[in-house]
What we know:
The protein has helices at residues 3-8, 11-24, 29-36, 40-49, and strands at 52-55, 60-63. It has 64 residues and is α+β, with helices and mostly antiparallel strands. Strands 1-2 form a two-stranded antiparallel ribbon. The model has no long low-confidence stretch (mean pLDDT 92). Pfam families: DUF4250. This is DUF4250 domain-containing protein.
Amino acid sequence: MIIGDIKSMDSNILVSIINMKLRDQYNSLESLCYDLNLIEDDIVNKCKDAGYRYIKEQNQFKAI
């Protein structure tokens, strides 16, 4: 996954992919972004625009 993918990807698909990776591979959004060389704010803002927010305690994006 690269930054261009994030900007052009359907928001619901992005949330699904990110949540799957958070569930299966990463213990935080920060570690996912570091490992995949992504900008956390880009992901958070794209998901926020689609009505999702990151819940750190649950380590996933949830609908607002």
